[in-house]
Amino acid sequence: MSNSASTSAADSQTPATVAKTPRAVFWLVVIAILLMASNMRSPIVALGSIAPVVQDALGLSAAHIGWLGAIPMLMFALGALVSPAIGKRYGLENTLIAVVIVLTAGIIMRSTWTTWNGFLIGTILLSLAIGFANTLVAPVIKQHTPGNIALVTSMFSLTMSVMAGIVSGLVYPLSEQVGWQWALGGWASLGIAALVAWIILRLKLGSSNKMPLVTLTENEAAQEATSVWKSALAWQLAIFMGLQSLLFYTIAAFLPSIWISKGLSEVEAGSMASIFQFMAPIAIIGMTWLIRKRGVRLQTVAIGATVLNVIGLIGISYLPSLMPVVWTAVMGLGCAAIFTLCIMLFSLRTYTPNQASKLSGMAQTIAYLVAFAGPFGAGWLYELSGNWNGPLLFILILTIINVIIAWLASRPIMIDGKPA
């Protein structure tokens, strides 16, 4: 690219032919995607907010709760691994209708089959469904809104974050008013609404496996068939997202404990967890504005977000008494921006929705397997050393490495290494 303007344009669309999406179709797709997004984090964070109540009600041990917290990441990885082939075989819309049904069934099962087995199976089902949705949303966005990838991806990520924050704040007070079963299971209504939206979308647009996807040149068609597992960019994206996910899930699990060890009260430490989560909307809106309105390069955003994570970790580790709110906030901004950026890149760096699905599946499989090791590794290092200095230093080193990975993963090139 010869200048920043052309680079920015390359960041906003793919080289395949981009057709203008009719307004009615655009909003139908957006509504379906946002209703899907409202179900994709809230069932996970809801359990974390109400875990002691569920533990007492079902007579579960701490080990049981630990497994319920770890299972989602394994299911996310499994769903990411198998969903591209299933989505291609049965169509994105058909697959996502089934995904919403399974997700909603899992939410209801946890609230009605009130035993350890029921809660476990329900958690496995809804987590596996979310793993499918994590992967298949990117190709849906590329298929149906190719000219608005950054905008729709940001709306999707923003909805996930906002709903997770709302549910985490409401579920405990609701449990005191209507009981924990309704407090957890009542959110299945969002799943039913999403199911209706996806059925309407399917009836309106048909199935993606029955229609031509995009107009490709002969060379692009050949590249589309290339295995993403052999692509250097795909591996860079997978590691980029994986190290970010390791940081996010480790901090999400231990942030209050870390701040208590640094001298904050339990109330203050709990507020840090809320600040960390609620930085996501600010990050997503700000990043979208920078990319769409200011033409800032994705590579600049990626490096900047990763540097924010580094600054936050340094502050928590070595300057905890100075500005605890600032260190927590900048790390929350960095984590949310990187996740959204990765989802964008799955669409922007591939030629077709099918290839976007493959890249999304491959990268998220690796990312969630890496993330699964984060909380367990940090907990093990803490038990070994008796403080959080060792775990924080280890995560800081990985995050510094991720600045370099960010530069590689966000370069303006396609999955085959050609200029975007």
Automatic annotation (TrEMBL):
Membrane-spanning parts: 24-44, 64-83, 95-113, 119-137, 149-174, 180-201, 237-260, 272-291, 298-319, 325-347, 359-382, 388-409
Source organism superkingdom: Bacteria
InterPro entries named in the record: MFS, MFS_Cyanate_Porter, MFS_dom, MFS_trans_sf
Keyword Protein biosynthesis (UniProt): no
Record's keyword terms, sorted: Membrane, Transmembrane, Transmembrane helix
PANTHER family found in the cross-reference section: 2-NITROIMIDAZOLE TRANSPORTER, PTHR23523
Protein name: Putative transporter YycB
Top-level taxonomy: Bacteria, Pseudomonadati, Pseudomonadota, Gammaproteobacteria, Moraxellales
Gene designation per UniProt: yycB
